[in-house]
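Archive entry: two folds, one per protein. Generate the first.
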Amino acid sequence: MLNLPIYDKEGKQVADYQVDTEAISPVVTQQLLHDAVVMYQSNERQGSSKTKSRAEVAGCRKKMYRQKGTGNARAGHKRSGVRRGGGHIFAKRPQDWSYRLPRKALQAATRMAMVSKLNGNVVKLIDMLNIDVPKTKAVVSILDKLSLNTSLLIVVDQYDQNIYKSARNLPRVRVLPVSDLNAYEILRPKQLLMTKAAMDEFVKTKAKSQAAQDQQ
């Protein structure tokens, strides 16, 4: 059982929060976390790189000069890959780099990633995070009072346009609803700031998922 302090917008502790990490994920497998992160990064690749082969570059395909008697090395046409302006010998082609791990493996990786962050003491809880109008200064003030000055993921229980617009101009700060969390998004920042409602929702859904997996 892990005991986390809950802070308000002024940076003062107002309550405690107990979370059972064993119920979320009893073990943390580094290999599974690595595989999940590599998958998400691979799926972000565009795969649109392309170069021209000798069949695609412009130029006459006639033999440049006769085979023998010139004193030069023998040569074919000017599209050859060994000549300047010629095509690439092993030309790049558009490629789809995306693939998918099993659903249960990704769900387990998400739970393990959160447990690793909790055990690393880099998760801070705030009682509520509501902003009346989009204002970056309001988010900066909250982060300063909570001593959050590094790469950060703000997790809310549901999408809030005011919070998103207030934080989108801050470097290395992202805002996500708890339903969009995955292992990559959790592990990428150095710290997490979660609302109490978001942590309640995460513990509820992930503990239920872990219990269902244990029964199988």
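Generate the second and append.
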Amino acid sequence: MILYFSATGNCKHVAKCIAEEFGDTALSVLEAPKEFSLKKGEMLGIVTPTYFWELPTIVRDYLTELSPDMPGDNYTFLIATFGTTPGATGEEARHILSANGILLDAAYSIRMPDNWTVWFDLSNPEKVAAQNAKADIQIKKVTEQIRKETLGNHQMPRVPYFMQTFTDAAFTSARQTSNLHLEGSCIGCGLCAKICPVNAIEIKDGKPVWVKDHCALCFGCLHHCPKFAIQYGNGATKKHGQYVHP
């Protein structure tokens, strides 16, 4: 089983490529059960984006409650997609899974277009397409490592796990919904509320309203908005465009 979280399609693409290669099933953690049974020798894969050098809160919470029945000889791996570094996602996942009695055999990373457009400029379609072409090559290489059941942390360039002490505070601050705002081009279609994975948006009087202090910071609302009416911070996101994996 290949589990993934994906707001704009990168991790969904990786998970489906891996699952197709091994005749397996790819399921979003938003829909997947936390208790299930694996057959002897069946793999367990987790594909996640990297947020602020660590796991997204949605993935972290899911793994904390994950309790599969694993009879033995089950190869377990994590793949983190990233823009600058996969951070300490592999080590963080290893700690969480270990507490549940699950051994993480390997961790991998794949550089892809990063939807954190506060920093990353994705406004040039040709450059984005080139990034995704390189990512597909990396996916194939990781697939071969999985086929060989390679062991160890192969994420590069990673950071020490203790850095989470500092990154977690920054991540929590960045997740404040007060950082997000709505422009006048909004047509009140309600798509943002529908796709928000933590139900932080509601439609009131025909317009989206953030009803929670913090969200997942997945930027699904920003990148899927048909009028690009949702922005973050000081306006850099407006200049850097929208992104959804093709």
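Annotation attached to the second fold: The two ends are 23 Å apart (CA to CA). The mean pLDDT is 96.
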